[in-house]
Design brief:
The complex is a heterodimer of chains A (198) and B (170). Chain A is of the alpha+beta class. Chain A has 6 helices and 9 strands; from the N terminus they run αββαββααββαβββα. The model of chain B has no long low-confidence stretch (mean pLDDT 89). Classes of the chains: A alpha+beta (198), B alpha+beta (170). At the A-B interface, helix 2, strand 3, helix 3, strand 6 and helix 5 of A face loops of B.
Amino acid sequence: MSITQEKLELLNSIIIAGAGHASTSLTKWFSKPVHIEAGGFLRVPLGDAFERIEGAQESLVAIYNQMLGAISGHLLLAFPEEAALVLVDQMMSRPIGETKELDAMGISVLQETGNIVASSFIGSLANSFDCQILPSVPFIQHDIGGAILEGLLIDQYETSNEALILPSRFLFDEKEVSWFLYVMPTREGFEAMDQLIG
Amino acid sequence: MTKLNMDSPAGGTMHNVGIGGLLVSFPPDRLRAVLGSCIGITLWDPDVKVGGLVHCLLPRSPVGDENSPPGKYIETALPALIDALLKEGASRDKLEVKIFGGSTMFRDLATGSVGGLGERNLKTAQQAVKDAGFTLKGKCLGGEKGRMIWLDLNTGIVTVRIIGESPREI
């Protein structure tokens, strides 16, 4: 990507603020402290995604939201399968381990969790850039992390041999959990942010 | 956390072939790729027991892209893989060709430049194999799920793993 390192650092700070808003919303949703640590954009050379991006080698249950409007992009909240089942147990007030597979109710819980993250994160981004961005409806994909991420990075790799992705770490109830949030603006999304920063 | 099973065989190395990558090796190594809408092409010579895997992102290169690796585009990947194998002693008329991938990972994104990419990729790959004068020995293409594939360089068998399904050998 042709964006300068200086502008990228400014974008990092805006995205980190968005992650903060998403943390607050998730804390209310779960009634337990949730903290999303967004570390900053990672430059991933063509061919290195599977090795370099945490979660790419996992079987993931991912909730996908497309970012629509002035800044286009992809937002992916993902869990290893067993973590997704634990999350459903917690939200349904069931004993941990009771949920063995994702039923319609479980999928609904995960979609709503994804919705909450996407709405608060994208709302924060729209405020920071003073523009309109909306999340699409969420949908769930259960697949190999690398295959999911590859699909969302294609438009960056189409014109560059490097892609930018912002991965995050999660603390749930003050313990680190293996949840993943990936922010991947499209090529046009980066161009729009570049212009809005000025 | 559930890591996908990517064990290496005794004495061999499991090489990952990332997007745009092209790799040739000998037994007991194995070559692996994770594919969504991308295409994986494997070639293997049963006599010399040398094989290769290329992991292609797009059907063809735009005008002026001279910096990308040949494996990024299907149209340049197959000739490059054939050349690499011939240099290692393979015979062109012995090569067994298999292709994998071309899924539609995000049907809701089926608009814009990425829309229908998996379908375009798999059609381009099948045509490229035909144009190169090969008969396909095996394939696992399309659908809406990603694939992890392993090429066993001792047997030429490609194992395909799709989440929620039993592994299959092709």
